[in-house]
Amino acid sequence: MKPSIPRGTRDFGPAEMQKRQYIFNIIKTNFQLFGYAPIETPTMENITTLTGKYGEEGDQLIFKVLNSRIHESKDDKKELLKKEFITSLEKSYNSELLTEKALRYDLTVPFARYVVMNHHALTYPFKRYQIQPVWRADKPQKGRYREFYQCDADVIGSDSLVNELELIAMMDKSFAELKILVIVKFNNRKILSGIAEILNASDKIIDITVAIDKLDKIGKDGVIKELQSKEISAEAITKLEPLIDLSGTNDAKVSVLKTFLASSEIGKKGIEEIEFLLTNLSSINIKHINVELDITLARGLNYYTGTIFEAKADSGTFTPSILGGGRYDDLTGIFGLKGLSGVGISFGVDRIYDVMEELNLFPESVNKVSTTKILLVNFGEAELMYCVSLAAKLRAAGINAEVYPDVVKKVSKQFEYADKKQIPYVGVVGSNEMTNKTIMLKTMATGEQQELSVENLVNALK
RNA sequence: GUAGAUGUAGCUCAGUUGGUUAGAGCAUCGGUUUGUGGUACCGAGGGUCGAGGGUUCGAGCCCCUUCAUUUACCCCA
């Protein structure tokens, strides 16, 4: 049988893992620096926990898990199962008889569920970080995987926009350390609600935001066409035009919005929030990222209610969003705990990796196949055991050491092993070294070698 | 779902208007070299040409069907 893995999934070899861990470490360090504590949640959630939170499209992308042991069902239940299966073939339909579990789609909803279940034990505002894979039943493409890691940091139980500010500061620091030039776009769902209100099209808010969101790709005419196809009135489209044309500095955009949204309470609230962030950006001393107000930013997830974030690399040809996030005022409400507002961001490690790979942003130090410092080469059975005890001494001194575990006809094979694993030193042990209680230390890069006592060997490698 | 591209050795790919025994590089193994790798040279093994059907004296190449991979749309990290 020819081996394969499900599409949209990947194996990561040692070389890739070194680079991935480099990214994870930077993000994790920054999460902790800002006071977030780690949690993990199960791979599977009850499907009812997930459905209805990600929008219509999102719900379709949830990986469902077939209930186990359905073949052991009683006959009358089997009849019901057959009916349910046929129904699910004909329309989008969730049958808990068939699937009551699903793989997590993101980390935010499981987090909200966790908060509600552990409400009594948490200290608010509760700040948590979570680094785990998520699954989406998407068609894989460039930069789009069916299994990928998210690195989330969320604060729940605080309305303060200071949380948003600190999240921006954390993005700045993280992307600076990763050396990725990034443009962080932000917007506010309240602005979008305000716009829909002004246009008398509150029921069409999703259609409108999705259309505006495509401005980059399809241009102004394309957006207008899309709006028309969604049965937005001509009058509303005319009203909307100044916003489609919106450009210039963040401040210039705000002043246009102020006029446009003057008669919308929710819109004015959104502007207030945006102004708070803009005027206080200076106090967090951003050095690396570009922060830009973009009213075409919509984001598909249903649960966002306030600030929304998205970050993209600002150079290279591969520029999908590598971070997303926002404020959700009542995600816990669905699980029965009202009045807890949360805000968070999510780094997409897999795309960050792709971007860094394209732009060659990994430091030389992570481009190693192995962290072994010395390989002990043997010339026979007795020498091999001498190597084993020697390795123990090296490791006791904190030196990464490997023993070549076989006795092979050609010693060159052992050197080849060291060479392929890019191990910088080789310790050769033959009968001479054994009688002298020494080791021949060879520096692979230069080919130089010298005979050393065990103590001198440890010192030389330290 | 819709549209395009691609499936040939373990990997990356050549393969002419259809013509004898399907090739290369890398990788693997062996040798030049029984106390020394990365270089060089010599040699070896490895293929139901994605699958099924058709056209033809003859198909890796043309036609049909099907499967897989991949890119774009939609949506998203």
Question: What would your notes on this structure say?
Answer:
By secondary structure, the chain is an alpha+beta fold. It has 2 domains: 14-63 and 105-359, BirA Bifunctional Protein, domain 2, CATH 3.30.930.10; 369-461, Anticodon-binding domain (Rossmann fold), CATH 3.40.50.800. Helices cover 42% and strands 19% of the residues. It is built from 17 helices and 16 strands. The protein has helices at 14-33, 47-50, 55-60, 75-90, 108-117, 162-178, 189-198, 205-213, 215-229, 234-244, 250-260, 265-280, 349-359, 381-396, 412-420, 431-436, 454-461; strands at residues 37-38, 44-46, 64-65, 101-103, 126-135, 147-156, 182-188, 290-293, 307-313, 321-328, 342-348, 374-378, 401-403, 425-429, 438-443, 449-453. The strands form 3 sheets. An 8-stranded mixed beta sheet has the order 1-5-6-11-10-9-7-8. A 5-stranded mixed beta sheet has the order 13-12-14-15-16, with helices on both faces. α1 packs across α13 and α7 (189-198) runs antiparallel to α12. The longest helix has 20 residues, at 14-33. It is globular and about 95 Å long. The two termini are 48 Å apart. The structure holds one RNA strand of 77 nucleotides.
